Amino acid sequence: MVTPAHFIALSVILFVIGAVGVLVRRNAIVVFMCVELMLNAANLAFVAFARMHNGLDGQVIAFFVMVVAAAEVVVGLAILTAIFRSRRSSSVDDANLMKY
Amino acid sequence: MSHSIVLAGPAAETARLIGFWVLAIISVGAALGMVLARKAVHCAVLLAVVMLSLAVMYAMLGAPFLALVQIIVYTGAVLMLFLFVLMIVGISAADSLVETIRGQRLWATLGGIAMLVLLSLVIGNAVIGPAAPPSAKFGNANVTSLASLIFTKYLYPFEITSALLITAAVGAMVLAHRERIRPKPSQRDLAAQRVASGRPAPLPGPGTYAQHNAADMPALLPDGSQSELSVSPVLSGRTGGAIASPAALPGGPGEGATSAGSPSSAGAGTSAGAGTSAGAGTSAGAGTPAGSPTSAGQEAGDQ
Questions:
Q1: What domains, with CATH codes, occur in chain B?
Q2: What is the complex's ipTM, to 2 decimals?
Q3: How many C-beta neighbours within 10 Å does residue B277 have?
Q4: By CB distance 3.0 to 4.6 Å, which of A81, B121, B216, B293 could disulfide with B264?
Q5: Per 3-state DSSP, what percentage of chain A is helix, strand, and coil (rounded to 5)?
Q6: Taking CB atoms and an 8 Å cutoff, what residues of chain A touch B171?
Q7: Residue B3's pLDDT is what?
C-alpha cells in the first residue's frame, strides 16, 4: 500500500541528491538544474502532505513554488548569459572578482 | 461526478504500488545521473526524466492539475529555456574534473549523507498518517476546488505572483540586453569589407561535389582536395578536426581524371579534372566518369 510516507521519503532522497549536486558541480547551469531538482522534491512533499491532510492548501503552495521557480530560472539564466558574454565562462569558480 | 481518478480496490492498490516503485527508481536514477553526467545537455535531459516522473506521481497523489502544470511549465518551458541558454553559452563546455577546492567532492558527499540521515530521522519521528479517503477534490473536482482556493483564500499571494512574473520578465530583458557600442554597418560598409577581404564570392557550401551533402562533409575543390572553408569551424572543432573523408568514392577523382581527361583538357588541366571529379562525386555510378569529353568540358567551363 502506497502511503504519503513513501512519497516523502522519495522527496527527501531527491532533495539530498540536488543539494549534493549544487555543492559538487561547477557549471553554473548545471547548478541551476540541481536547484530545480530541490524545488521539485519540495513540491512532491507538499503534494503528498496535501493528500495526507485531505486539503488542497499544499497543492496551492506547490503551484506558487512552480511560479516562483519559473521566475527564478528566467532571471538566473539571464544573469548567466550576461556573465558568459563578458567573461566567456560559465564556471562558478571563475566569477571571483569580489573574493578579495 | 461520473468517476474519480483516485481508484479504489485491491487491484488498483497493487498497481499503484508497482507504479510508485518504478517511478521512484527511474527518478532517483535519473537524478543521480544528472549529478554525475559531465555534459550539461545530458543533465538537462535527465532532469526532464525526473520532472516527468514527478508529474505522474502528482497524478497518483490526486493532483491532476499540478501534474499537467508540471509537464507544461517545467518540462515544456523551464527546460526549453535551459536548453536555449546551453546553446548560447556553448554546448561543448563539459565540466572539468579538476578539483579547485581540495576535498570538495568528499566533503560534499559526506554532507549529503549527513543531510539524508538528519532528514530521515526527522521524518521517521514525524507522524505521517495514511492518505485521506478519496474525495472529489482529488479527482474530477480538483481544478475547480483549486480555483476556488486560489481566488478566495490565496487571492493576495496570487496577485503578488503576477507582479513577480512581470518583474522577472522585465529583469530578464534588462539583463540580457546588449548595448550597441559601435554603429551598425551599412550595406555599403559590408560590401567594401567583403571586397577588401580578398574573397568576394561566398564560401563554398558543405558537401559540394562530395559524396553527400551533410553539414560536416567538406566540399571538393577542383583538384579533388577538401575545402576546409566549407565546414563550419564549430563542427570541425567538435569532431577534432578529422572531417569525414570522401576518399572511398566508387569513382574517385583520380580515376575520373585518367578516364576522361584526354581530349578536352585543352583549356586548363586542373579545371578539366575538376569537371570529371565533380561528375563522379555528385552522381556516383551514373556513368559520368566515363562521360563524353564535351560534357566534361562544359562542367569545367561552369566551374
A1: 1-93 (1.20.120.1200), 205-302 (no CATH)
A2: 0.92
A3: 29
A4: B293
A5: 80, 0, 20
A6: 74-75, 78
A7: 47
